[in-house]
From TrEMBL, chain A:
Tagged with keyword S-adenosyl-L-methionine: no
Keyword Oxidoreductase: yes
Record-linked InterPro entries: Acyl-CoA_DH_CS (IPR006089), Acyl-CoA_Oxase/DH_mid-dom (IPR006091), Acyl-CoA_Oxase/DH_mid-dom_sf (IPR046373), AcylCo_DH-like_C (IPR036250), AcylCo_DH/oxidase_C (IPR009075), AcylCoA_DH/ox_N (IPR013786), AcylCoA_DH/ox_N_sf (IPR037069), AcylCoA_DH/oxidase_NM_dom_sf (IPR009100)
PROSITE patterns to which the protein is assigned, alphabetical: ACYL_COA_DH_1
Cofactor: FAD
Residue span(s) of domain Acyl-CoA oxidase/dehydrogenase middle: 130-223
Pfam families: Acyl-CoA_dh_1, Acyl-CoA_dh_M, Acyl-CoA_dh_N
Coiled-coil positions: none
Alphabetical keyword list: FAD, Flavoprotein, Oxidoreductase
Name of the protein: Alkylation response protein AidB-like acyl-CoA dehydrogenase
TrEMBL record, chain B:
Sequence ranges assigned to domain Acyl-CoA dehydrogenase/oxidase C-terminal in this UniProt record: 176-289
Domain of life from the UniProt record: Bacteria
InterPro entries for this protein: AcylCo_DH-like_C, AcylCo_DH/oxidase_C
Gene3D superfamilies given in the database record: Butyryl-CoA Dehydrogenase, subunit A, domain 3
Gene Ontology MF term list: acyl-CoA dehydrogenase activity
Protein name: Acyl-CoA dehydrogenase-like protein
Keyword annotations: FAD, Flavoprotein, Oxidoreductase
Pfam family, one: Acyl-CoA_dh_1
Transmembrane region(s): none
Biological source species: Salipiger aestuarii
Amino acid sequence: MTLPTFPLETTSTAQVALRAEVRAFLSDALVDLPARERARSWVGFDADFSAELGKRGWLGMTLPKAYGGHGRDAVDRHIVVEELLAAGAPVAAHWIADRQSAPLILRHGTEDQRRTILPRIAAGTCFFGIGMSEASSGSDLASVRTKAERTADGFVLNGTKLWTTYGHKAHYMIVFCRTGKSEDRHGGFSQVLVDMSLPGITVSPVLDIAGEHHFNEVSFDNVVLPPDALLGEEGGGWAQVMSELAFERSGPDRFLSSYVLVEDLLRCLKRASAGGETTDLGRMIARLMVLRQMSLSVAGRLARGEQPVLAAAIVKDLGALFEQDVPEIARRVLRDDAADAEYAAVFQRILLAAPSFSLRGGTREILRGIIARGLGLR
Amino acid sequence: MDDSTYSMVIESAEKLFSDRGGKDFDPALWAAVEEAGFPLALLSEDRGGYGFCAREAFAPVRVAAAHGVALPLGETLVANWALGEAGLDPAEGPAALAWEGKAAVPYGRFLKTVVLLRETEAGLAVFVLHPRGDDWRTARNYAGEARDVLTLAAPAQPDAHIACAPVVLRATLAMLRAVQIAGATDAVAAMCMSYCNEREQFGRPLSRLQAIQHQLAVLATQGCAATVAADMAVAAFDTALAQADPFVLTAAAAKVRAAEAATTVSSIAHQVHGAIGFSEEYPLHRLTCRLWSWRDEDGSEAQWARHLADWAESLQSGGQLWPALTACDLREAT
Ligand SMILES: Cc1cc2nc3c(=O)[nH]c(=O)nc-3n(C[C@H](O)[C@H](O)[C@H](O)COP(=O)(O)OP(=O)(O)OC[C@H]3O[C@@H](n4cnc5c(N)ncnc54)[C@H](O)[C@@H]3O)c2cc1C
């Protein structure tokens, strides 16, 4: 075989039961949440809901029990995440912490960092922000200017991060910054763990095209960090941030962002028994069924301790295309008079979120570059 | 998962089919295929087969497709399986399922046995026919594979019945095309990769140009999707009779998705190859023309897409798609 392989995963009886348990909880917990709110997908924020998930053992699932986690594997986590996203649950509060900050801290953090932070992430009470992008540094992350300078008793952090999702709610931000000079373009970077309550941090909202506030500009003005703010190795930030991105890229959040519209579209189609041309609807379902298998396969490989960077990039590229096609397909299959006010609100929310699906977490072009490298073309 | 049988099957299929691609039925190669036992792989040992799981049994079909081999291998494999389910002995020689009255039979004139299917009140009737040369009106698909029309009428009395819904057999044949598409897209990807690494323009290999890299990345994502689509349908085939609904839906999705991938993959492959890929002498068209044929054979992309759409719309009112989708998940063998 020339192409990368995606070994199929099968589901055990215990996993089927886990899915059913999560589903039953959600149908109860979200009974009053209208579709237009669910349509926010993983940008919907509800701290109480996150804490409830924590109580039920559905956060920090793959973390060892010693750190408040549940010692389960990536496939179990994948199942829970799929159910949350399919239901349009408001998961934003814990999302970044659970998805990428916790595994990063587990792998690179000190024992002290693990003990103080990981149990709170698993409880759904500690939220994180991703401090990678800056105004002049997006895809080209190696051009970041934010700097942490060593002092006698720690670091002083200066610079401004941009597009920081839920920076205004975060307890911590993991900031990718310069800590030294290096001949190597990818050298001299580190990640620092920044307590957002420290003096000198200003979080300013940035609104998106729908006028919504989720991302922010976060500036650091001589923020004094303790020595143990360093996360991982000094100068090893580049490799760390790349493996963090691999976690960020592999999950069901990369193809289910517009799923609430799929269900609402079907609701309207059934109500109207539209009898229109639904070939595109069938095509959409086929793509979704295959994407689910591909993403589950990546989870299976993560569970076996592999780092499927190429496979994850492939799923994210196909997933973003799918998520962005959903509103376009909906336009083609639903007659105007079959839509109601709720559907219109769901549609608008997803239409206006769609451009971000192929930007956040690495743009389409960057992913295709990663895939090309994986294929040995560069 | 124990992969030893699977790897062994792949290895012997590779050995058999490498460099044996072509347009016309190859009797010598068919003899070797029978020798290897591939057409009996799905039958249990007491029926003279090997009792392979579907993943192992369909592996040679994919390898044959990757090499552009002109044989009714998958067709015979499925025909023998259907005969077994009908309580009949496996066919002698190359065989295929055919729906009564339906136009094209793959490799018709080269078949020893046609397993003709008729939908009746009493169920799915099976007729085992042995047509002669003049029972066929010959025709070919875009790739030149024989797709002949049977002019022989079935007798009044069927040889047997199969206890399964007709759609299960239709879905099985659709799955077969998805498997072939998966094999061919992988081979097309290999051709594109090596061509772009070798061919130089502007003083460097095409593969150094970002526009080409991105085209090949898209080709790869589509090829992977086709492969996963075929794999999931094949895995569901193991329980196709016991759990018909999930199998049919999975196979429908596989056909639709693989067909969509076939379209993109063929188009990119011809684009990156330039004029040479458009020439008769260059082997690319053997694969791309098959992709264009297979995506429409045994139920077009549109037909199976509508099957999925109708299913989604028929879920009981208030019922959601999601639980129905997860109900199709592949279950661990118990
Ligand atoms: C909703 C949302 C939430 C986000 N949340 C966060 C967050 O929490 N934390 C954070 O750090 N960042 C976040 N980001 C930022 C995100 O990571 C960046 O948008 C992304 O990395 C791209 O950077 P950019 O926007 O500066 O675009 P650029 O890098 O300027 O790219 C602009 C265009 O040029 C293309 N391009 C760039 N380089 C190349 C190349 N080498 N080859 C070909 N094409 C190229 C890009 O693909 C893109 O199409 C978020 C973004 C969005 C939209």
